[in-house]
Specification:
Helix content: 40-55%
Largest sheet: 7 strands, parallel
Number of strands: 7
Oligomer: single chain
Number of domains: 1
Length: 257
């Protein structure tokens, strides 16, 4: 299916989960705004791969921890894309701390990337969509927030990261309610999906088997859920949990530790 140059912005999509997401979207006919921060070479390589299979991909560099970076990204998207219709907030800051040792920078960086930037980008897409509605070019946009199943089965590890994802969960509900005239806003909360930096395959498999279903989310499940959300025009304010049942019997400490 070709979507007539309708563009989806996917943050942090040069590598890892973001790359899988945009590859699946390109194969479904969407134009992609590929955002990256420091991974310029990987972003260029990913874009080149997708162009070779017929994709339309534009690159956008921005530091989402900075106001100026977010504002630059929004301006460039609105100027360069034919019709901006979707936003997938995939970028994430993830650093270990706990309630005793976290500091201002930990809290600031987690909240900036995982909550503030998605909130501002969602507002920007809502304003853009309203403007397009007046021109009869578009009727409804969509936002998908990539959350974390951890917030539905809490433990005290990764303290400020968890706080930021809880804030993002609140954003999903509030923005779905507030922007209902122009946007559908939903979320996906995966469990462990890809190897964490420094994690070996043995530890990865062990963490999966700690869930009730002895398995966690896969890339294919996440991309399929994204496609379901995009196509389900009655769905908004909903978060799909993909964690193998871990939230029903959460561990006392993070499974990655």
């Amino acid at each position: 299916m070709i979507h007539e140059d309708k563009t989806i912005l996917v943050t942090a999509s040069a590598k890892r989960l973001g790359k899988f997401i945009i590859t699946d979207l390109v194969e479904a006919g969407w134009s992609i705004a590929l955002h990256y921060n420091k991974s310029k070479k990987l972003a260029e390589e990913t874009a080149e791969e997708l162009v070779k299979i017929g994709g339309k991909v534009n690159l956008y560099q921005a530091d989402l921890a900075k106001k100026s970076g977010i504002e630059k990204l929004i301006k460039n998207i609105e100027v360069n894309e034919s019709l901006w219709v979707g936003l997938i907030n995939n970028a994430g800051y993830f650093n270990y701390d706990n309630s005793n040792n976290f500091n201002f920078d930990d809290l600031y960086n987690h909240m900036s990337v995982n909550f503030t930037a998605p909130a501002i980008l969602t507002q920007a897409l809502a304003n853009y969509t309203i403007k397009m509605q007046k021109q009869k070019k578009n009727t409804q946009g969509f936002v998908i927030n990539i959350l974390d199943a951890k917030i539905f089965g809490l433990n005290p590890d990764y303290y400020t990261y968890t706080l930021s994802k809880q804030a993002m969960y609140g954003l999903t509900k509030m923005s779905a309610l507030s922007y209902s005239s122009c946007l559908r806003v939903n979320g996906i909360a995966p469990g462990i999906t890809l190897l964490a930096p420094g994690q070996d395959q043995k530890a990865f498999k062990k963490s999966h088997k700690q869930n009730l279903l002895k398995a966690s989310s896969t890339v294919e499940e996440i991309t399929s859920t994204i496609q379901l959300i995009i196509k389900s025009r009655s769905m908004t304010g909903h978060v799909t949990l993909l964690d193998g049942g871990a939230h029903l019997a959460p561990p006392r400490k993070d499974v990655g530790l």
